Every structure is written in structure tokens, then in C-alpha cells.
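Note to self: keep these together.
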Amino acid sequence: MEIINSTIRSFFQYFGSWLVKCLLKPRKFIQICDLCLQPSDNHSLLCRTCQQDLATFNLTLVKGNLLNHPKIARHLPQIHFQQLICLAPYQWPFASWVQQLKYQQRFEIGQLLAKLLVAQITHHQLEQQLPTLLLPVPIHPQRLRERQYNQAALIAKELERHLPCAYDESLIIRQSKTEQQVGQSGAQRRRNLHGAFCLVKPCHLPAHVGIVDDVLTTGATVSEMAKLLTQHGVKKITVLSVCLTLPND
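Structure:
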């Protein structure tokens, strides 16, 4: 009987030791691609195959500046920035991702989009054209209280982690709450945004500043920010946007 009790005790000691090791052992979670729903060994949300299939801008063809493309330049009149770097046209899957980040609180999408933009910059060797300081497009305090976050700031923070740029979220504020811009023409947006932004306090700004946004449609919002920065001595302004809405014509 004593032998049996000893055997049972040894078994439970071994089993308990094995169970503790299993519980303490780091577990590897399988990441699923957001597009094909297959296991991903690349990014936590995107497999290598789907990433290679993404339709993105070839920035080398425009020397790192989409404003060098005649069609895009005509689409963005009366702007006050000198360089435009975008990841992709505003279409699937980017349009869906931006909407999920903006309205469904899928914060991991912000990390994905920023990393894809960084990969785009690195692939086309644009590191030497980057601004010294990154500023996200601010949203009005009331809208910020309602949404609890600024999607442009989430993207800008992630860009700062991977690019040799400083970041400041509080340098510029949106002092007037404009109506929703969806469906408005460029001229209407420019009128609504006149004087919408201001510097929190006087400060020394670098010669080259970047403005970060999720989607560029008419360029009115970032251009109003760029005009303010130019009035305070900034010489060059680069807009870094995840998506660009292309003209229909």
C-alpha cells in the first residue's frame, strides 16, 4: 500500500511540475491576415502575399513627391505645402482600414498603416527628404471628447517610432469646429477652414515640418495648417498621408 501511495504521489508531483512548465512557457499565437484570413508570419495583420499585392504609389517615378504628377497637381490647387508623400489611393483595402480605425476603434490598424507607409518611404529611399518634425492634423476638442482619440495622431506617433523625425501633438490646435467636410468641394472646404488652426504658443519651428493625416481629399485641411506654419517661418512643408483620393477625370 505504501508503494502504491508513493507511486501516486510521484505521478502527481511529475504532473504538477509538467503543468507549471506548460503554463509558464511563452505561447506563440497564430496571427491571421486581415485580408485573406490565412496565418501570417509577416505583420500581425497582413501576410507577405497580400502585402505584395497591395496597390501603392510608385514614389520613385515622381522623385518622392506626388505633386510632381500633373494630374495630382491639377487636383490640388491653391495649396501651401511643397511635398506630398502618400501610401496608396483611397480604395479597398485602405479605405476600409481607415474607416475601421476612425470609427470602430481598431487601433492596431493605425500601427499597420504607419508601418506600411514607413516601408514605402524606405523602399523608395526617401529618408533624406523627410521633415525634422511631424505634426498630426488636430481635431476640435469637442470631437476629440466624443471620439476619445485622433486617428492622425495615432499614425503620427507610430511614424515617429520608425523614422528619424520628432513629434509634437500639442503644438497646433483646432480652434473652430467646422462642419463635416464629406461631399464638399475644395472651395467650400477652404472657406470653412479659414483660420481654423492656431499655434498654442510662440515657438521656434524647424525649417522643414511634416503634417500627418489619414486621407487627403482636396488638401484644404493640411493646406490651412501649412499656411499657418509658413507664416511662422517654416520654409518647407511635407504632407505624409496614408491615402490620397484621386480625381475621377
